Amino acid sequence: GDTAAYQNKLKTCARTRPITCVISQCKSKYSEEAITKPCSHCNKLKRKNEKTAKPLRCQILNNNFHAKESTKPIFKQHDLLTVYNLYRLRCIVELFKIMKYRLPIAIYSLFTRSKRKDSLIITPAPSHNFTYKASWLWNLFRNSESDL
Questions:
Q1: Could you tell me the CA-to-CA distances from 147 to 140, 141, 142, 144 in Å, in that order?
Q2: Phi/psi class of residue 79: alpha, beta or left (left: φ > 0; alpha: ψ in -120 to 50)?
Q3: Which of 19, 95, 110 shows the shortest CA–CA distance to 57?
Q4: Are 22 and 58 in contact (CB under 8 A)?
Q5: Would you place residue 70 in the very low, low, confident or very high pLDDT band (cuts 50, 70, 90)?
Q6: pLDDT at residue number 144
Q7: Other residues' Cβ atoms within 10 Å of the Cβ of residue 146
Q8: Which strand (E) or helix (H) includes residue 140?
Q9: Above 70 in pLDDT, residue 130?
């Protein structure tokens, strides 16, 4: 195949491959099949826990072949929000709309404003529902001067 295209493909994949060197093959005493062993260069890389690209002849498909690539640098480079941050943003925006327009009234009635400070919302009992999460995030956002 086309080695350059294959190695370029690895740059665009969601996963990366650790690199090792040439593999030597030898026959086993007990079997006719060849046993694949990493060369000395591959063994050194393995001992150092270095993850560099393997040449085609050195790639063996096993559980150590793939390593997860971090998406954080890519998201930061393109100014994208993670799913977690999108969820937080949407909760705060939806709560803002509910508090401003007081619609839908059924959801608005679930929130209780603080009598001490009108910009805060009294959080209900901790749970995973929208009422608790949105009010907790709202109070966190209102108390902090930094971005969430």
A1: 10, 8, 10, 8
A2: left
A3: 19
A4: yes
A5: confident
A6: 81
A7: 5
A8: helix 130-143
A9: yes
